[in-house]
Amino acid sequence: MRLDKFLKVSRIIKRRTLSKEIAEAQRVKVNGKVVKPSYKLKVGDEIEITFGRSILTVRVKELKPHVLKDEASELYEIVKEEKIEESF
Question: In this structure, are residues 16 and 4 in contact, taking their beta carbons and an 8 Å threshold?
Answer without folding.
Answer: yes
